[in-house]
TrEMBL record:
Ranges of Polar residues composition bias in the record: 487-496
UniProt protein name: Terminal uridylyl transferase 4
Sorted UniProt keywords: Magnesium, Metal-binding, Transferase, Zinc, Zinc-finger
Acidic residues composition-biased segments: 450-463, 503-512
Originating organism: Myripristis murdjan
A Pfam family of this chain: TUTase
């Protein structure tokens, strides 16, 4: 097991400290029971306000227990029994004596033989270099400026004879190979690093060609330099990698860890030894853009090796390596980092304390072992470490085939022999059955342990039967001691506290141990023999297969049910004229019900001279009546935000808004790409955000409004798409889906690709050969915005005569039947199809390009699970809107969320359990922090005129907002109630007061607020109240 949590010991106390004569019978029984619990790692807790209802703590399982009865119940659980066995195994490993010189020599020979047999030689390395040279000559015949470089295990010499050759293309990014010299040419452009696979015909070696993999090349060069400087590193890494391959834990696609992580683990061990063999060459400066690491530059100037460990044999290093990761290093507490000499805590990088954490020395944000996402696989790796260390730390005699464990070493062997002599005592122990009677417990305990081993034990099938017998005897003794509730004195047990064996005849043991040591001195290295064998290391038990997509076990990536695949769709029935008219009327109904025409007309007259302006859906022609308000703020005298401290301005703005009586939930977000302040209007429930110098978004709003003005069908389709996304709960980017802006871009892209097109590509219409420049925030925000000239230039725009209903069904069919999300990007800035490979967005499920900020993928935050949910809604929508039916007038039939989503709720596994948003954990939730402790904001003096304009603007804005039909209501309370019942049970926390156990609608504070608001309906219409903002600096 992992190291014990020492911090838990501070809160426990052992024993009562009272004289036995002064104890009552009940107290005496309690003390004896607690002594028995203490032997099983269950300790009494000191009373604390943090755990007021718990009396005991199990240190093995980190479980708090209420009383004695709960402790006895916990002892019988399979998890506790398993942890007892692992703790006992750990104690056995710690008790192993140091290896003899003959044993070290035999291990040394086994490691060297494995490295020589499976690692590449100098001749193999030259063959691989020749393959790279031939490929470079082939490519340069077509691309003269292109060059190749070797990286990966072949360059570091950590490669096996069967390893593929990693080749990186420095320039350009596209690669061509000739079929006459290479076979089995395949491409994988949807990997995180797109690659081309091919086999060199002359050598038969597999090549893996990528482009621009600079970080991997830097890491490879560093490891290769270390391998040249320390000769023992290569055989150690090769043996370690071969052991991992035999245990099948180096397969990244099946939930293992990448092969080069084992090299990092070996180097880290050599750096962390008491007498380090390798120093740390890197440091905190790695990762800065101005620094490039070249170890060759230091070769002639600095001592790159240490003399401390020169006399240590390879066999001793191998044993120390296994012991280091089995018993000494806290895998779940620290990060394996070869960049720093001191241990790197996970808290420093905010990495979770789960499983393995390995840092790439040149990609500091990357956990190399992030593919190890299953706790079962991690426990399997831990067990393989224990098995390997036990095998190599004990003498293995020649002639046993290496498959027998051999006899136990030293004291541990004698302890087990002593235990065997007393086995009868344990098997015949009488246990109180809780009803005043006695029962024979030995057989029952043995049976329980046998059942546990069938389901949970990780013992190897090929292990020594005598060892299993010893373990069964040992565990039977442990369980009898724990479960016993009789009056037997604790001194009759052969155990010391916490399950350690206590010998009755220490003098006899010392004498026997001396005899063992004398016998070991007569053993030579020729008598011992170690082999790297799969059955020895694994017992024939493979690791659990874990999918790299959904992180679940039992299947691989290719068989994952959550993988985004193209579904075979059934053909739709023929369309009728009557149904076409129904769809057409439905789209127009969406526009009439949700548009906010009066609001847009009123906004045009507001703040002509002010420094605040609206953008987004409120002005681009696609705004709902309850859409959020997007407001951009600029400061007088500053055209850009380059010389401004945006963080302080946003925090100061939040301070001003908090004093406004009509607003609440003021939340500054300064870490976003565009810093904003979010707020909510108390009476209407409308939300909004104010951003600072989001000028590019204003140009974006203007372009979308221009598209909406070209053809009325654009608006009708945009509103229908937003209603569709809202009903299916797939239109909120803060909860892991796409934003409404992304869906509008999908509508525009479809209308551009339609034959004939409904709208043109405004960014491709200009005079001359070069695109005009209109630079905003470093991006060209040009688009053609003269509508009168547009109709004169492009008279063919009127050729498409399809109705809105036909276009809506065509949109659903386009994104389910024609458009390939894996291959293409949704981009409204060009008519030509844009591939995901060109954008290097191959690892994303949905790629939607912002028309101005070309580096912004609006689908980057959508998971595969959410992608499948969105596509399911589109496929069901295609079937629903494409199958003629004549329902009652209205939207209920066509926008039934249960039909569109098959009655399922949108995935929320990435969402915070308090606010329902993504991007943070529950412990960091702003809504939770608001009640736990008040947030401290920096004070910033905003100009007086900005504060005045802001307050007047918000007051006038919300006065016009509170018009009939503008209040934010639930569309279908009954449906929402049903959804609430269908949701998975989880913690219920009120958003109003922050207390647990109820939701906002049941909150007394919220009920009182609603009553007070209802009693003063004209409160917000009083400008004096709306403007009662203290402008005190």
């Amino acid at each position: 097991m992992a190291q014990m949590n020492q911090s838990a010991e501070d809160g426990t106390e052992v024993g009562a400290g009272l004289e036995e004569g002064a104890l009552t019978e009940q107290q005496l029984g309690l003390r004896q029971a607690e002594e028995r619990l203490y032997r099983d790692y269950i300790h009494r807790l000191v009373k604390s306000p943090e755990y007021p209802n718990f009396q005991y703590l199990c240190k093995l399982c980190s479980v708090h227990i209420e009383n004695i009865q709960g402790a006895h119940k916990h002892i019988k659980e399979k998890r506790h029994k398993k942890n007892i066995m692992e703790k006992q195994e750990e104690n056995e490993l710690r008790a192993l004596p140091p290896p003899s010189p003959a044993q070290l020599k035999a291990v040394d020979a086994a490691v060297l033989d494995t490295a020589k047999q499976h690692g590449i030689s100098e001749e193999d390395f030259q063959v691989r270099l020749a393959v790279v040279s031939r490929m470079e000559e082939t490519i340069q015949q077509h691309l003269s400026a292109c060059s190749l470089r070797l990286y990966g295990s072949c360059l570091t010499r950590f490669a096996f004879k069967t390893s593929d050759i990693n080749i990186d293309v420095t320039y350009p990014s596209s690669v061509s190979v000739l079929a006459s010299e290479y076979s089995e040419v395949e491409s994988d452009f949807h990997a995180k690093v797109p690659v081309v696979f091919c086999r060199d015909i002359s050598s038969g070696l597999m090549c893996k060609v990528s482009a621009g993999n600079d970080v991997a090349c830097l890491t490879t060069n560093h490891l290769a330099a270390l391998a040249k400087l320390e000769p023992r590193l290569v055989p150690l890494v090769l043996a370690f990698r071969y052991w991992a391959r035999l245990c099948h834990i180096d397969c990244q696609a099946e939930g293992g860890i990448p092969s080069y992580s084992f090299a990092l683990m070996v180097i880290f061990f050599l750096q962390q030894r008491k007498e380090p063999i390798l120093p740390v060459y890197l440091g905190h400066w790695v990762g800065e853009s101005s620094c490039l690491y070249l170890i060759g530059a230091f070769t002639a100037k600095t001592r790159l090796t240490l003399d401390l460990g020169k006399g240590v044999s390879l066999g001793q290093l191998w044993l120390e390596l296994l012991r280091f990761y089995t018993l000494e290093f806290a895998l779940e507490e620290y990060i394996i980092s070869i960049r720093l000499r001191e241990l790197l805590s996970r808290e420093v990088k905010n990495w979770p304390r789960r499983r393995l954490a390995i840092e790439d020395p040149f990609a500091l944000k990357r956990n190399v072992a992030r593919s190890l996402n299953s706790q079962m696989v991690f426990e399997y790796i831990q067990e393989r470490f224990r098995t390997a260390y036990k095998y190599f730390a004990c003498p293995q005699f020649r002639g046993t085939g290496g498959r027998q464990r051999g006899k136990k070493c030293g004291k541990q062997d004698m302890k087990l022999e002593s235990l065997e002599k007393k086995e009868a005592v344990f098997l015949n122990t009488e246990v109180d059955d809780g009803k005043g009677g006695k029962s024979q417990s030995g057989g029952r305990v043995r049976q329980e342990l046998k059942e546990d081993e069938e389901h949970e034990s990780d013992d190897e099938d090929g292990s020594d039967p005598s060892r299993k017998e010893d373990e069964e005897t040992l565990n039977a003794a442990l369980m009898n001691m724990v479960l016993s509730e009789g009056d037997q004195p604790s001194t009759n047990t052969p155990f010391s506290p916490n399950g350690l064996l206590d010998s009755d005849n220490e003098g006899e043991e010392e004498e026997e141990e001396n005899n063992v040591l004398e016998k070991e001195a007569l053993i030579t290295s020729e008598d011992l023999h170690y082999v790297f064998d799969r059955m020895i290391f694994t017992g024939g038990k493979p690791p659990t297969v874990v999918c790299s997509i959904c992180k679940r076990d039992g299947h691989l990536k290719d068989e994952c049910p959550e993988d985004f695949k193209k579904i075979e769709l059934k053909p739709l029935p023929p369309m009728t004229d009557r149904f076409r008219d129904i769809l057409d009327g439905l789209c127009r109904l969406c526009y009439r019900m949700y548009s906010s025409v009066q609001l847009r007309l009123l906004f045009r007259g507001l703040l002509k001279e002010a420094q605040l302006c609206l953008f987004g859906s409120s002005k681009n022609g696609f705004g709902f009546r309850d859409s959020d308000l997007d407001i951009c703020m600029t400061l007088e005298g500053h055209d850009t935000a380059e010389k401004l401290n945006c963080k302080e301005i946003i925090e100061g703005l939040a301070k001003v808004l908090k004093k406004h009586t009509g607003l609440r939930n003021i939340l500054p977000i300064t870490t976003a790409k565009v810093p904003i302040v979010k707020f909510e209007h108390r009476q209407s429930g409308l939300e909004g955000d104010i951003s600072l110098y989001n000028t590019l978004a204003q140009h974006n709003t203007r372009m979308l409004a221009t598209y909406a003005a070209i053809d009325s069908r654009v608006q009708y389709l945009g509103y229908t798409m937003k209603v569709f996304a809202k009903r299916c709960d797939i239109g909120d980017a803060s909860r892991g889906s796409l934003s409404s802006y992304a869906y509008i871009l999908m509508v525009l892209y479809f209308l551009q690709q339609r034959q004939p097109p409904v709208i043109p590509v405004l960014q491709e219409i200009f005079d001359g050969k070069n695109v005009p420049q209109r630079m905003v925030d470093g991006w060209n925000a040009f688009f053609f915005d003269d509508l009168e000239e547009l109709h004169r230039r492009l008279p063919e725009l009127q050729q498409n005569k399809e109705s809105v209903g036909e276009l809506w069904l065509g949109l659903l069919r386009f994104y389910t039947e024609e458009f390939d999300f894996k291959e293409h990007v949704i981009s409204i800035r060009q008519r030509k199809r844009l591939t995901t490979f060109e954008k290097q967005w191959t690892s994303k499920c949905i790629a939607i390009e912002d028309p101005f900020d070309l580096n912004h993928n609006l689908g980057a935050g959508v998971s595969r699970k959410m992608t499948n949910f969105i596509m399911k809604a589109f496929i069901n929508g295609r079937k629903l809107f494409g199958s003629p039916f004549y329902p009652q007038p209205g939207m209920e039939y066509f926008f039934d969320s249960k039909v569109l989503t098959d009655g399922e709720l949108a995935p929320n596994d990435r969402c915070c359990r308090i606010c329902g948003k993504i991007g943070h954990y529950m412990k960091d939730c702003p809504k939770r922090r608001r009640y736990v402790g008040s947030t401290v904001y920096l004070y910033f003096d905003l100009p007086l005129n900005v504060c005045t304009h802001l307050c007047m603007y918000l007051s006038d804005l919300f006065l016009c907002v509170l018009s009939p039909g503008r209040m934010k209501k639930k569309e279908n309370d009954k449906e929402e109630d049903i959804k609430e019942e269908e949701r998975e049970p989880r913690e219920r926390r009120c958003f109003q007061c922050g207390d647990m156990g109820h939701v906002r609608r049941d909150c007394p504070e919220y009920r009182h607020l609603r009553q007070r608001t209802a009693g003063a309906p004209g409160m917000l219409r009083d400008k004096a109240i709306s403007l009662s903002v203290s402008l005190r600096g």
